[in-house]
Amino acid sequence: MLFARTGIMSALIRLTFTLSVIGAAAGLAAPSVTSQPDGQHDFDFEIGAWNTRVSRLDRPLTGSKTWLTYDGTSIVRTLLDGRANLVELSVAGPAGRIEGVSLRLYHPQSREWALHYANIRDGELTPSVTGRFSDGRGEFRGEDTLDGRAILVRFVISRLSAESWRFEQAFSADGGKSWEVNWIAVDTRSRASHANGAGDGVPASERVGGSGGAKPPGQSDSAPSRGGSGKPSPPMKARVEK
Questions:
Q1: Where are the beta strands (DSSP E) in the chain?
Q2: What is the mean pLDDT of residues 97-125?
Q3: Ordered structural domains, the chain, with CATH
């Protein structure tokens, strides 16, 4: 009987120790998706009309230092109660014209946005980049190819002021060890948007008391809002996810 009791006590001690280890591991586990702020209205601030200035690196990942400039407009329209939006980009400069559309779709399960861009010249959607806003900065990443080689794509959106946002695209050919910026678009809200009562320039999940209860952005982004500027035209496969 004493042996049986001793065996039971040993088993209970081992079970308690095992549960303690499991509990500790659970405490160190990565936060669940549901712990992320609901960002389905993160692009509401951008709805409306914008004046767009684009700087595009000619022939990315070739060592080129030549930048081309364009000016024009970006029109952002909301869809599906904020869970999607469509950006229409039209800019022109000495190097020609860039026209395209960017479709952004919100994934409620992952609480991330997927940004897709299509240039009107070929009518094809680029592979999407996905990500979210955090601490006032939007960052979106994906994979693509450029001149037959695999590359990584990073798109960043940052707030310059209440009326201005920056959209920046960069490529990496070494698995993300280094990045080359090839597209910078700065959007400034047009007077027409003010007249129509456009958004306040703050992503919903970054507002105090807003969705997710996060703080307002102190970001300097604008680049990734994938609403910032269209992608470069062929043969440069630069996807511009404005």
A1: 48-57, 67-79, 84-93, 96-107, 112-119, 129-134, 137-146, 149-161, 164-172, 180-189
A2: 93
A3: 35-206 (2.40.128.20)
Contact assessment for residue 151 and residue 61, using Cβ atoms and an 8 Å cutoff: yes
Cβ atoms of 195 and 111 within 8 Å: the answer is no
Span 153-186, pLDDT tens digits: 999 999 999 899 999 999 999 999 999 999 999 9
Count of Cβ atoms closer than 10 Å to residue 17 Cβ: 10
Cα(169)–Cα(157) distance, integer angstroms = 9
CB-based contact 142:153 (threshold 8 Å): yes
What are the residues facing 103 on neighbouring strands?
A: 86, 116
- Per-residue pLDDT at 191: 82
CA 130 to chain centroid, in Å, comes to: 6
**What are the counts of helices (DSSP H) followed by strands (DSSP E) for the chain?**
2, 10
How would residue 242 be classed by pLDDT, with cut points 50, 70 and 90?
low
> Cα angle at 123 between 120 and 125, to 5 degrees?
110
Using DSSP's 3-state secondary structure scheme, residue 184 falls into: strand
